[in-house]
Amino acid sequence: MSHPDLNLLAVLDVLLAEGSVAGAARRLRLSPSAMSRSLARLRKTTGDPLLVRAGRGLVPSPRALELREQVRRIVQDAEAALRPVTAPDLARLVRTFTLRTSDGFVETFGPRLIQRVGVEAPGVRLRFMPKLDKDSTLLRDGTADLETGVVSSAMGPEVRAQALLRDRFVGVVRAGHPLGEGEVTPARYAQGRHVLVSRRALAQGPVEDALAAVGLQRDVAAVVGGFSAALALARASDLIASVPERHTAGLRAGMLCFPLPVWVPEITVSLLWHPRLDADPAHRWLRGCVQDACAGPATW
């Protein structure tokens, strides 16, 4: 089955609006003969004369009258689809965005982000969901609009990533903990009992590698899946938590924080999204809001 030439829709729209071959030709900057050939093709395609001679002019057939509004809407929709993306009308935008984030992001950066979104786009709702793994399926299928996290090989190769912030690991203990007195040396740090954060329940991480480099090993008393759980245990006991400094600022209020006495590489926390949303003006605006929220000092 042959497909109709969709370019004829624009020609038909102008012909029905002008009611004249000559007028339509002038509007489309075509010769009258070229427009006559197009009308002939339209008549063949639709099986209808469309424009019928009446005295010196042309009048639309009943079929043409039926098509006029439909063709106008189709052409207008096509023009809108091909028009360059413009800035969204934030004051009238009504939409829910789902952000998949790691522990601490909402507490630390959420207040500033929610405040800005509320001022600029009061009809926008932010839905935060926990990030339990690095699988990018939820971005791919549209369940999540944005994610934050450290880029890894577990993510799909098509996922877009933009750096949000650099972070370093710090040690955190309860107020009044023995490590709050005197210098925190590698030996004193390693001798304490620790809570380790690992989504995969692995008792090995970058801190273990750093301690091993100086011939030390820490005593891991508990392994948890998130920073908030690690800090809750450290707050209520003598356990030592080692967590990203900026990412957990909103979770560490009232606790003692100290630089790790061994070198652990910094991490880059990135903003992640699926490429199909690259050109979405509202999504682009939200990405800018998240970047700005993470650029300033953390909220305590």
Protein described:
The termini are far apart. It contains ten helices and twelve strands. It is α/β, with parallel strands linked by helices. The protein is rod-shaped. Strand 1 (51-54) and strand 2 (57-60) form a beta hairpin. Helix 1 (7-18) packs across helix 3 (32-46), helix 1 (7-18) crosses helix 4 (62-82) and helix 5 crosses helix 10 (281-295). The protein has three domains: 7-82, Arc Repressor Mutant, subunit A; 90-157 and 279-295, Periplasmic binding protein-like II (D-Maltodextrin-Binding Protein, domain 2, 3-Layer(aba) Sandwich); 169-265, Periplasmic binding protein-like II (D-Maltodextrin-Binding Protein, domain 2). Helices cover 38% and strands 22% of the residues. It has a five-stranded mixed β-sheet, covered by helices on one side.
- How much helical structure, as a percent, in the residues? 25-40%
How many structural domains in the coordinates?
3
Topology order in helix (H) and strand (E) letters: HHHEEHEHEHEEEHEHEHEEEH
Second-tier CATH architecture of the largest domain: 3-Layer(aba) Sandwich
Strand order of the largest sheet: 4-3-5-12-6
> Number of helix segments?
10
Instruction: Please give the CATH class of the largest domain.
Output: Alpha Beta
Got a strand count? 12
What class, by secondary structure content? alpha/beta
The main pleated sheet reads as: 5 strands, mixed
Fourth-level CATH superfamily of the largest domain: Periplasmic binding protein-like II
Distance between the termini: 66 Å
As a percent range, the share of strand residues is 15-25%
